[in-house]
Amino acid sequence: QTKPRKPVLWYHFQECTCCSESFLRASHPLVGQILLEMISLDYSDTLMAAAGEQAEAVRNQAMKDFYGHYIMIVEGSIPLGSPGYCTIAGRDAKSVFEEGANGAEAIIAWGNCASSGCIQHAYPNPTKTEPVHKIYSGKPIINVQGCPPIADVMAGVITYILTFGKLPELDNMGRPVVFYGRRVHDTCYRRPAYDAGLFVQSFDDENAKKGYCLYYMGCKGPNTFNSCAVIKWNNSVSYPIQSGHGCIGCSEPNFWDYEPLYSH
Ligand code: SF4
Ligand code: SF4
Ligand code: F3S
Fold it and tell me: What are the binding positions for [4Fe-4S] cluster 2 in this chain (predicted)?
C-alpha cells in the first residue's frame, strides 16, 4: 500500500481500439482495481478525460517526471510509408512512438497490431506498417498477442510485471509462455471429436449441431498458441470454437495472409 503506483503511458497508432475494449472487461483482477490501485495510467488517448493540448501536456509532463521508469503500452502498428498516414497532434506516428519508447523502462505491445502488424500489415501492406519489435530495440518488449488479447491475459501480464518487477518468460515470438505456451488445439473441448475423426463438413450440418471438430471448416487451432480454450472470453463464458466458429489464428503473426482463412 505504500508502494507508488507504476506510471503507465498508453499509446495508440494504427489500430481499431478493441484491445482497449477487451482490457476494459478484465475481471482477474478487475479493470477498476488495475486502474485505481495498481498502475497510474498517466496517458491514454481513449481512457483519459483530457483531449488535445491538455492531453499532450499531460504526456509530456509524465515522460519528464518518470523518464526511464514508466511502462509504455502500445496499441497499434506504426506506418512507415508516409508521415501523414497516422498522426497525433500533427506529428507522425514513428516520432511519437520513438520519443515514448526512449524514456520507457519496458514496452508492452498489446495485440496483433503492435506485435505483428495485423490486418493493415497484410499483403500488400499499403502503409508499410510495422510492429514495435521490428522498428525498435534496446528495451524489453513483450508481445501480448491476439486480436484482441484476452482481457485476463492483459490483466495477468500487468500483474506479473508489477509483482515481480520483470517481464515473464517469453517464447520465440516474444509472447509470455504462461499464456501462449499451448496450442488452442491442445486444450480444445472438441479435441476428442478430432481424435475420433468426427468433423463438421458445413456450418449448418448435423455434425455442427453435435459439436464435432471444426478442422474442415478451416479451424487454425492446431497452429495457434493462445489460452482461449482455458481462460476463455467474457468472464470465462465462451470462446470462438465454443460458439461454433473455428479459430482463425488471431494470436499468430500474419494470420490475415492465411490462404484461405476458411480452409484447413
Ligand atoms: Fe484491434 Fe486487433 Fe489491432 Fe487490437 S490487435 S487494435 S483488436 S485490430
Ligand atoms: Fe482442434 Fe479446432 Fe478441432 Fe478444436 S475445433 S479440436 S482446435 S481443429
Ligand atoms: Fe483468436 Fe483463435 Fe482464440 S481466433 S480468439 S486465438 S480461438
Answer: 185, 188, 213, 219
